[in-house]
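ok, trying the design again with the full structure, not the truncated one.
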């Protein structure tokens, strides 16, 4: 899909204008850094305000002494009221490939400051900057959530929220017109033949409608999952944005439905509301009792029957493993597919020897890791199939 010239000029003008503001505040920003900034945003698209901030910070800032100037410039140039500019930039970068003449356009935009190509020594650093950026993103995707620092954790959260998660689909009982359906549509064929003196020159066909299958996320927020629970909650926020047929629950020693809280438009507000409503965060783990409560309270609801259920937990059950095995068997009979995501599975030495995990595995359709960005990206693909 090709962006209009007006949209491209407006988006690129916003990015070059931000680079000019940073140069005016003493940061050595030239063509190379702005090109790296554009490519970083293109790799993140679609992105939110946090993604824009971190892409600029990674590509425009050379050392920590420049951080105060960068943050002040970012707040001044991209205030909360300027969501229109953010939408223009995101829409342009999501729909086009960056043109080869981008470097010339950036140089022309910066020339108004009297900037000359190579004046700040960045002409030969462009490829290195892009390579470092790609390498850093790849390292972050492969790094375990428990090893991230605060800055990396914020960047990872922004990437998780931008995951393109698609809901699974199923065939409904209703039929719809289709050019290549499996059932002959006699009524539409006869109706069309009235235009050709009763000769059925064109045959009509029908196929079953396809509609989204419900998705249910059950997330462990106990103390043993503290390094991963916030990232999994960000995944739940991304799943909620995929459609209305998504339900999210979290549990430690009791089950809490957090779907309504995660439907907030701002992720920080949603997570604060979840934290206020979940009283057993970072507490003990009773997986079997929580699954039983889910089935007893919501087993007759339409969102659970025939759904794809994703249960995220390390399997360290403190209750009776026999209860967990029996409840997983119930859940497996009710759901279309049962996926267990265990962050511990990311270790090559991991074996599911814990009593809770051993009791649950016979009833699980897919057993996946969930310790880093790569594993969550793989999970989103499995869910969408």
């Amino acid at each position: 899909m090709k962006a209009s010239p007006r949209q491209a000029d407006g988006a690129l003008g916003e990015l070059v204008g931000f680079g000019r503001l940073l140069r005016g505040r003493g940061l050595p920003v030239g063509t190379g850094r702005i090109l790296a900034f554009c490519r970083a945003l293109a790799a993140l698209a679609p992105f939110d305000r946090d993604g824009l901030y971190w892409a600029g910070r990674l590509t425009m800032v050379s050392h920590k002494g420049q951080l105060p100037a960068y943050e002040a410039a970012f707040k001044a140039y991209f205030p909360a009221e300027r969501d229109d500019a953010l939408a223009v930039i995101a829409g342009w970068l999501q729909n086009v490939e960056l043109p080869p003449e981008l470097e010339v356009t950036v140089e022309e935009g910066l020339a108004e400051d009297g900037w000359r190509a190579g004046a700040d020594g960045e002409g030969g650093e462009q490829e290195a900057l892009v390579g470092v950026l790609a390498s850093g993103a790849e390292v972050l995707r492969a790094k375990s959530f428990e090893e991230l620092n605060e800055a990396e954790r914020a960047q990872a959260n922004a990437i998780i929220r931008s995951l393109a998660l698609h809901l699974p689909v199923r065939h409904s009982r209703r039929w719809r017109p289709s050019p290549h359906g499996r059932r002959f549509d006699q009524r539409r064929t006869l109706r069309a033949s009235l235009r050709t003196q009763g000769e059925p020159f064109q045959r009509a066909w029908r196929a079953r409608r396809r509609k989204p299958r419900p998705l249910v996320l059950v997330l462990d927020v106990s103390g043993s999952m503290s390094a991963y629970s916030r990232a999994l909650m960000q995944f739940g926020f991304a799943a909620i944005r995929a459609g209305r047929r998504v339900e999210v629950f979290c549990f430690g020693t009791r089950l809490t439905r957090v779907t309504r809280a995660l439907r907030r438009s701002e992720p920080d507000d949603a997570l604060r509301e979840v934290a206020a409503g979940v009283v057993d965060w970072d507490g003990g783990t009773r997986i079997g009792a929580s699954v039983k409560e889910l089935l007893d309270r919501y087993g007759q609801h339409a969102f659970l029957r025939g759904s794809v259920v994703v249960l995220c937990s390390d399997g360290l059950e403190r209750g009776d493993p026999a209860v967990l095995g029996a409840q997983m068997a119930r859940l497996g009979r009710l759901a279309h597919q049962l996926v267990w995501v265990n962050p511990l599975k990311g270790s090559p030495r991991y074996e599911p020897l814990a009593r809770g995990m051993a009791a649950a595995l016979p009833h699980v359709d897919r057993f996946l890791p969930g310790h880093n960005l790569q594993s969550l990206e793989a999970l989103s693909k499995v869910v969408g199939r």
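Keeping the full-length input from now on. DSSP finds 16 helices and nine strands in the chain.
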